[in-house]
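Translate structure to sequence.
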């Protein structure tokens, strides 16, 4: 027996997971972080190897979010956050003045399936926004369901692989999906959302958006606050049952793209209000969950959604490929006054997203008009595949000097706009999940919040898929749902028992 094999409980030979260097993987659940809450450390070799390979699994289509639609528009700031001056919490310039306009581009998408898949499939919807601010681009990349399946980025390739088609049969397989989910209790909240009618938005115009992860706002004194972002459609929220989705899919698999494009062409411009939830920076031991956990919602009765502006989409793309397909977003694209939290999933996404764009579109993807900031660009970066301009020449930089510091006419560092935010970090570097997981409570609360027809649709959708799964997977899922809510688990079990 080799060192990558062992016997399982039944005495059968079991392969041991390794990385491509042949090193056995002893922990495939947690990235290495400072303490159990983070931040992550750069020497996460197994994570970096895993995620960089995953970023390059498809050419040239996106690995995820391949099916999408987009539009141009603008953001108008209210100058306040709720009833308070926004400057109390952030120095980001785009929010400061009432009526200040910032141009935007938005891309909506499904997640798992390919570029020409139906837009009626049960799948989270991507909600990616690019603000062309006076300080450069800000990308806010989230989804329509407020939360996510996992909390550690090392699990992202596993999650997507489980939901993607079987690598042998090329068919999406509920047995694979729920095999993974049944071993991932933190996903119960997202599964409850996804298999309810909320899992199929009626169209992009009637869809909420969320940044999902926890970020920070930083004011001019360098004080940081935890923040979550939300888009609320002024057209209202509309979703589809499985039966309604199938009826539409039988006639039109482009219905959401068509709806968005036609509405804008007619001048019926969709609009969203942009809101934030704010929490003081810290661990908040008074809560029964960790505020950095992306599988959780901050209770709006304790942390209300505060309006900060509105977004209007008023222009369709001139060319789909040049604008929508080549649009590239990244969670690390922040402007001054916005910052990262120690959210592990956010930190993993911040590396992965921009790495994916450099691979998918190319190292000079930011030279494309759809991705290029509206502000002057001056860097010391040079060359690379498909380059067609030299950063900094337009700013009067000496073309012979592509380094810093220099006294020969090179670029200079920009002055600081406020005190830096300097969070204090201390702790052992470990691979460990957060201490307050509380995987079932919010899933149960979500189930009890649903109206009767939403619960009926949820149970029907789950049991229809789970009936295709092995009995031991069904049993694990019933146990999880029961811990969320006894009625929830009972109804799924009874649904599985029906022929």
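Result:
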């Amino acid at each position: 027996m080799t060192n990558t094999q062992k016997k399982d409980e039944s005495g059968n030979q079991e392969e041991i997971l390794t990385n491509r260097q042949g090193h056995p993987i002893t922990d495939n659940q947690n990235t290495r972080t400072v303490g159990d809450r983070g931040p992550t450390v750069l020497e996460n070799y197994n994570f970096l190897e895993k995620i960089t390979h995953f970023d390059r699994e498809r050419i040239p289509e996106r690995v995820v979010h391949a099916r999408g639609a987009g539009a141009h528009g603008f953001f108008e700031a209210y100058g306040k956050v709720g009833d308070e001056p926004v400057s109390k919490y952030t120095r980001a310039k785009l929010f400061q003045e009432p009526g200040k306009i910032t141009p935007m581009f938005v891309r909506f998408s499904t997640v798992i399936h390919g570029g020409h898949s139906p837009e009626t499939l049960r799948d989270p919807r991507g909600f990616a926004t690019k603000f062309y601010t006076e300080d450069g681009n800000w990308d806010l990349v989230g989804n329509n369901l407020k939360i996510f399946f996992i909390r550690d980025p090392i699990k992202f390739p596993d999650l997507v692989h489980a939901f993607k088609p079987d690598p042998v049969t090329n068919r999406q397989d509920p047995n694979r999906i729920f095999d993974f989910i049944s071993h991932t209790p933190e996903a119960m909240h997202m599964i409850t959302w996804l298999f309810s009618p909320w899992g199929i938005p009626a169209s992009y115009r009637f869809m909420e958006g969320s940044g999902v992860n926890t970020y920070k706002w930083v004011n001019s004194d360098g004080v940081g606050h935890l923040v979550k972002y939300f888009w609320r459609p002024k057209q209202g929220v509309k979703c589809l049952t499985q039966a309604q989705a199938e009826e539409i899919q039988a006639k039109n698999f482009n219905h959401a793209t068509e709806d968005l494009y036609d509405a804008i062409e007619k001048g019926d411009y969709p609009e969203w209000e942009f809101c934030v939830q704010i929490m003081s920076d810290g661990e908040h031991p008074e809560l029964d969950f960790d505020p950095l956990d992306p599988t959780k919602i901050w209770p709006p009765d304790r942390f209300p959604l505060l309006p900060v502006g509105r977004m209007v989409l008023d222009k369709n793309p001139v060319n789909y490929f040049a604008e929508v397909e080549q649009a590239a977003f990244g969670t690390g694209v922040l402007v001054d006054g916005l910052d990262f939290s120690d959210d592990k999933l956010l930190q993993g996404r911040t590396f992965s997203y921009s790495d994916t764009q450099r691979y998918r579109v190319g190292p000079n993807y930011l030279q494309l008009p759809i991705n290029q900031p509206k502000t002057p660009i001056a860097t010391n970066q040079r060359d690379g595949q498909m380059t067609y301009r030299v950063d900094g020449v337009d700013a009067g930089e000496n073309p012979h000097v592509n380094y810093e510091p220099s006294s020969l006419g090179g670029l200079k560092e920009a002055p600081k706009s406020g005190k830096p935010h300097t969070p204090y970090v201390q702790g052992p570097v470990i691979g460990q999940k957060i201490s307050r997981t509380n995987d079932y409570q919010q899933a149960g609360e979500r189930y009890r919040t649903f109206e009767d027809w939403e619960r009926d649709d949820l149970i029907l959708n789950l049991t229809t898929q789970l009936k295709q799964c092995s009995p031991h997977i069904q049993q694990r899922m019933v146990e999880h749902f029961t811990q969320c809510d006894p009625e929830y688990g009972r109804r799924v079990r009874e649904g599985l028992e029906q022929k």
